[in-house]
Design goal:
five-stranded mixed sheet; about 20% strand; alpha+beta; four-stranded antiparallel sheet; about 25% helix; DNA-binding
Amino acid sequence: MPELPEVETMRRGVEPVCGGRIVRATRTPCRCRPIGLRPAWPALKRRVEGRRVLDVRRAGKRVVLVLDDGGRLVFQPRMSGLLLLADPPDREHLRLQFTVEQTGGPVHALRYWDRRGLGQVQWMDEAEYAAQVERVLGPDALTVTGEQLRQRLGAGRRAIKVALLDQHAVAGIGNLYAAEILFRVRLHPATPCWALRERDWERLAEATRQVLAEAVAYEGSTLGDGTYRNALNQEGNYQNHHRVYGRAGQPCPVCGAAIRRIVQAQRSTFFCPRCQRLRRAVRGQAVCKGPVRRR
DNA sequence: ATTAATGTTCAGAA
DNA sequence: TTTCTGAACATTAA
């Protein structure tokens, strides 16, 4: 699923083809059910056609085309969205197709494909975009500092694994990389945030930056369902370097203990029970499941 | 043949 | 305020 490394790979894939070019024509190539387009198709089309793409950026798990009138075309792939230059995996779930070209230059197709259709494509003006980012996204996970993490999460009761998925706290981490990051720092995923010390936050931020940068270098992870592809419809390679994610029952690459799968906030968490021990001060308190009752 | 699981995000509830 | 739950969706495994 597209998390930061996969979305960054998409961004890098489409940047050389979109940057500086003009959106000439757009269309909805199939009659698939309406998906998360905002505004609706005819208005979005009007906003985008004829505009030059000044920059291709990433914000958390979103790819953002900066247009020459200040408009922003925001792709949020969520579960199964892909930005493609190559032919899509199938025609049926090809949601949107843009054409970009330089005057007199070659014409390129930029496609948005989304099998499950949970993704969103939105046009917004500069101010609206800035407000949105401010409202929903924390500092980018690729460059986040320990101080930022501690400030935003340090006082909470949430388990650290759950907290890392909070995009407003830190933007870009998803279920897969949260597991890999916590393994790297040898933190038990159920550790409550309040139990981490300043030094822990520093190490956690460092591991976050390292794991994500590594995954970007490998062009992300293509999981068993094979959904994720880069812009050229090729698989990523980081799935071959996962230490814990999806490896329940298999030996920990460090100590050999069997990797465990637990459920937190209705999602799978994978970790090594020997490398990632719960701290003594926290045992018994961290495992409480339901909401803490206040008085 | 239903049902659960998959993973991201948001609205709305606790 | 903070945290939690369910829904949105498509597809596959049980």
